[in-house]
UniProtKB/TrEMBL annotation:
Record organism: Edaphosphingomonas laterariae
Domain Calcineurin-like phosphoesterase: 48-212
Pfam families on file: Metallophos
GO BP term (any one): lipid A biosynthetic process
A single GO cellular-component term on record: membrane
Protein name: Calcineurin-like phosphoesterase domain-containing protein
Hydrolase recorded as keyword: yes
GO molecular function: metal ion binding; UDP-2,3-diacylglucosamine hydrolase activity
Matches recorded under InterPro entries: Calcineurin-like_PHP, Metallo-depent_PP-like, Metallophosphoesterase_sf
Record keyword Chaperone present: no
Amino acid sequence: MRFWHIASSAIALGVAVIGWCYWTAITDPIVRQADVPLLPPDSGLPPLRLLLISDIHVAGPDMTPTRLSRIVGQINALHPDAVLIAGDLVSDKRIATRTFSLRDAIAPLGRLKTRLGAFAVLGNHDHWRDADEARYELARAGVHVLDNNAAQAGPLVIGGIDDAFTGNDDLPATLRSMAAMKGTPILISHSPDPFPDVPPSIGLMVAGHTHCGQIRLPLVGALSYMSAYGDRYACGHIREASKQLIVGAGLGTSLLPLRLGAVPDMWMITIRPRDRIEN
């Protein structure tokens, strides 16, 4: 009798923990803030607000197009000057209750409202599904697809590295494309792993892919960050010498529709002129 009491209590606790992890996964993303002095000093340029999202992973039960539409509304209410999308638009979770076409998954992004535009790179899941179709649907939604190249966005030059996890990245080609344009350079990558090879002339790179661990167990931590550098670039705002890296936790989930210790997030990055002392 005592055994069954202990077993039933353990089962109840397990169900409660799983429920909590699922509830965490479907909560609205929190908005984290970063202040990055990048623009030339005395340029007279006003600060720019760049909104970073990553790892949308559209698939049931946790991330449907309807939920993504609600998050797009949350983004629009923040009035960003540009939106940076760091890959993995879809998910292929084995236990997904429903998968969606790339058209249905990406369509809500067509309602993003920005002054300078929305810019995206592909992630490993996008390549595994259909990279060409993902590029087409992003363009159809009015999102600029950066595929080892760059685009002008007002006073910014935004470069995008294709996915490093699947070996489709070409940093030298991206840098050449950025060098052909005039403006303050910013780099988008799905994985943070290219960061050590980024030259000091690129003051800011943004990325996703790690999900900040997605499920981080007490005392143990995350089982994996899917990075060659372990937890070095796992999450958040990282500074190394003159370069800065911001890695988001993402909006959706991979493998399991659960989160623990790594809530969904997006980053509002304020780009402002450097002080003379920072120059």
